[in-house]
Each structure stands twice: as structure tokens, then as C-alpha cells.
Amino acid sequence: MHLMYVDESGDPGRSTEPTPAFVLAGLIVPGNRWNQTEAAILKLRRDLNAQYGLKLRDEMRGSNIMKSGPGPMDARVAMIETALQRIGKLPDVKILLTVVRKKSLPPETDVFRAGWAAHLARFDAWLARTNQNRPPEKSTPGFIVSDDTHGGQLNRLVRGLRKERPVRVTRGMWWWKRSEVVNRPLRYVIEDPQRKDSRQSLLIQAADLCAYAVYQTEKPHGAVREHKGMTRFMKALAPAIDRTGGTDDRGVFVIRYD
Description:
Blueprint: E1 2-10, E2 21-30, H1 34-52, H2 62-68, H3 73-88, E3 94-101, H4 111-130, E4 142-147, H5 152-163, E5 166-173, E6 176-183, E7 194-196, H6 202-218, H7 222-226, H8 229-237, E8 253-255
Parallel strand pairs: 1-4, 3-8, 4-7
Antiparallel strand pairs: 1-2, 2-3, 5-6
């Protein structure tokens, strides 16, 4: 079993003000490494308290740290960078990053569905690669754990994508090509996602930090820009980012229409 802890940054509303992008970040943790990974994040949380003064009762969320965290702004940027460095070096953990840029979307586009459908498909494709040389009866499934934000909307989407996920593909060689829509439902993502209050899950908080890092490259906070946090954050995460499936030079899969 692989678990993907997912959190968002920005919002899925159609307005580009104040959030021009909707970001999803997923921390993929092998089930047999869950205890070690959770222990490493717990140690990180304690170290942030000892090194930077982040109170143990405070959530490890990027926007909260920049808004009301301890110390001056440069120390808050450094704190987030330190946390992301530790997350980026977690053994056997992979990070999926997806962003929807809302500005040029067609009017009928559902931002939530576009972002989550792509992110789930990327997780399913990652699981397919992991299971490539295994017989079906020995394949390893994946399970989603997400922040408790969207209620049953995410459950309905996952159930629907297990039955129908239209994908446009191009077949043929350069001298003869044709485009068609085929159904490629999710194969390896099982069950309804488990929704958890992020205050009760350090792994969801870690996913939030990853999403915050990406969002800062889309619309940076003033202090993050001043201290070059956008570059520092993504560099810190780089070792764990999964870069397959058409990602950009940051390792982010971008959904846009321009």
C-alpha cells in the first residue's frame, strides 16, 4: 500500500483574485515506511520548535508561519526552507505537484475537478509504474488522505474516475496521425479518500508546506520574494519531486489553456 497525503494552496474558485492558481501537493509514503516517515516529521516538528521557536501547538503550515510565526521575516523564510529540506530528503518518499492556472481557463472549467482529476491520474500513473513488473494479484494499491475541506465532493470525483476518465490520445506516426478520446479509469487508487483535520496530521501539514512552496512561485508573498524564498523552497524539495508525466522545470504539472 502507498498512501498519498494531499493538501492544497490557493483555492478552486474561478476568480483569479486573490488567488490566481490552485495548487495540489501530494506526499507519497510507502505503507511499510509509514512509522519511520511519521517519526521523522515529528522530529522535524520538534526541531523547528527548538531552532526557530515554532510552538508545538501551532500548525506547520506555510501561510501561518509567514503570517504569525516567530521571529523576523527572514527567519520565517529560513524555517520553511529548513522544513522543506528535511521533507525533500525523507527516504522512499515522493512528492507530486500539480497547479491549475485559472486566468485562461474556459468559462465552463471546474477548477477543483481539473486539478484533482489530474493529480489523481498522476498518482495512479505513478502506482502503475511501481507495479509494472508485478502480476495484478500482487500489485500495490494507493490510498488518499487529504485535508478535510471539500466534504463528499472529492469522494464523488474519485468514484467517478474509477468508472470513467476520458483522455485524448494521438495515435500514428508523423506522416499519419489521428486523435481520439479513450477511457482510462483509475486502476490503483482504492477506497474513498480519508479526510482528516490537518491539526491532527503532521503528514498533511508537510504536504501543505510543499503546496505553499509551489504557490509562492505562482504568487509570492512580499517577504518570500524579498528573501528569494521561491527559489530556495523549490530547491529544498527537489530531491523528492517526481518529474515524470510532462512536468515543467520545477517538477510541477501545470494545467493551463494558453
